[in-house]
Predict the 3D structure of the following.
Amino acid sequence: MLTVKGIAIDSAANKPLGYVTVALLDAKTQQSVKAGLTKDDGSFELKGPTGKTYQLTFVSVGYKNKVVNIAGGGVDVNVGKVFLSVSSKQLNEVSVTATRPLMKQEVDRISYDVQADPDSKALSALDMMRKVPLLSVDGNDNIQLKGSGNYKILINGKESALVARNPSDILKSMPATNIEKIEVITTPPAKYDAEGLAGIINIITKRNADQGYNIGFNSRFNSVFGAGYNLNGTFKEGKFGMSFFGGFGSNGTLTNTSQNTEHIFASQTDILQNGVNTQKGNFHYGGTELSYELDTLNLLTASIDLFGNDQNQHGTQFSNTDSLGIKEQAYTLQNSGNNSFTGLDAAINYQLGFKKSKDRLLTFSYKYSYSPNKQYNDNVFNDRFNYFYSLVPDYQQYNDAGNKDHTIQVDYASPLTKQVSIEAGAKAILRNNYSNYHVNDRDSTTQQYSQNNALTNDFNYHQDIYSVYNSYQLKMDQWTGKAGLRLEHTALSADFISAGVATAPSYSNLIPSVSIQRSFKTSSINFGFTQRIQRPGIGQLNPFVDRTNPTFISAGNPQLKPELDNTFELTYSNFTKNSINIGLSYAFSNNSIQNVSSLLVETMNNKKDTVTYTTFQNLGSNRTLGFNVNTNLAVTKQFTISLNGQVNHIWLSGDFNGGMYHNDGFTGNAFGNIRYRFPDGFAFSFNAGFFSGNVNLQGSSSPFVFNQYLLSKDFFNKRFTFVLVANNPYKKFNNITSTTRSNDFYQTSLNQNYYRSLAFRLNFRFGKLNSDIKKNQHGIENDDTKGGNKNTTGNG
């Protein structure tokens, strides 16, 4: 008898593939002689009569089929490693249609294949986030991971200045067609920086190119947000490869209203504010990645990414203060200004392979990031009543803030045995956060502006992080384990130009991570534990006092300390034709960073005034118990249903401003998708979601409902797609309400956002490709500072 054996390998991940169908066919008759499935480690063994010529056929859902010719003259043939590549084409040889699975559960993460989702041609990257397990997007377009805003977003495994400050801004501008997949790393291994309490979101853009070229064009026009355009492509010729994407468009002209009410208990004072604000802006972004194979063992790659957002605004605010029903103070504020944000990333990587083992790699990396944010506001008061010019004159405020990072990193990865592999490395991040701010007051007599020195300063915050890591992975037939340690040393110094230099204490952290996966035929059970650090970013540290609303002011806190979090995960996954993912999680920290408000008596121009002051503090404990579920059902070949939902219970407590605060409650969200594909190229989708709102130490926010209708039509063999989109057609505006309660006051804020919008999208691609660009498998992944959220409005 002839024995044929080998190992099936995923060509992209370079990992063994279990449960691949392997068939031994008679080369002449094409009849199957023997068939079977590969084991968990990808190995297989088939037997057949000697003396014949055979074909060995490999078939797996989501992969191109592979045919290997077997002479059949011997008694033992070892074909070695057989590499299978991902495909969405029909496998004619065995009459199996390869539908790429939307989700994949690995030992420490869940990945969502955006390109396998037919709605990717119709949705923005931010819209796609709603479909990804464990992720949600609230009514202000803030992204949350397991109901938390404490996470890190990476682009292609690297921290990016593009999304460091306002991730929603770029993700709502970028079409989902630019994204290959989204990974949710719930138990980040030791090679990742220890930042991001809830985990890491890794967005992998389309960057694999083949010999030849491929060009894609996307455009959208939204009834509220205007037009947007995107171009993306890949090119490969010989050893050189390039991928790129870029876009620009309008953020629209948006006019919405807001309202603040506050009741101060001691003086029985009521403050009522109503405002109308108009914003108009535009965005642009772009990026390219270059690859050159010096030879089979030496690879050089480089990348550069850029994002810009420019926003002009003008607002009118009416403020009235009563005490025991008697009018005490009132004014009308005209506010106009500009906010300009830029993000720049540039990186270069050198990867060295070894002849004895293609899986043994040494990588050297360098990256530079720069993200300036310039803010200007002009404030003019009218209709003053007991709101004296000597107390608060007309004023202008400026703030030039941002960060500059230099990162150097070396990584080593190698298999030790067939079952055990090692990763190790060292890294240095040299970061300078800065904020140069000043306020100019206008003289009531001369009408000239002069600098207010009490509200002017230059702030520099140096944060240098040095780290080493070591992790091991053990891969057995049915068990996979990954464990590691990361040692990080953080050196800090703060410099207030006008007040001299203050040096903050340095600190060190040893961060463990453990992930275990038990695999079954079509399912798995995963357990993970890790500690995470939340270092405050410039948005939380910046001492600039934002006085855009002089009654309700806000500032960062340069004295913030890092927060340490412990997270446990237990997940069951079954990814077959109909997939399901169910998880439990528990996380706690004892020095949590909270956004808090208090009454503050300020002395300005020798006058006293009471304002509400909002900042960040290290306060008490934060515990979260969570449950999540995600499922995709293929009812028929044309009709699919998916559901992504989670519910958390949060307990918060902390000592602030002389009082002990406690708050707890349930938060959660659910997102569902129904899609039907007609035989003539038409497809209809309905998306709907519910977001419960947030629970924080001093209050909560209101729930939010989302719905979306999409009708698409493919032309020219799916190279051209036209999509109509209706977002929330039932109501023009949506009101988001938040409440804050302290021992001294109760506050309610209402913000109106655009809700209804109609849009159409065009997608067109052309070109011909044949083989993959080679990518370095390791590189810089700065995920060491807290991801920020900003209230923005999606653009459909």
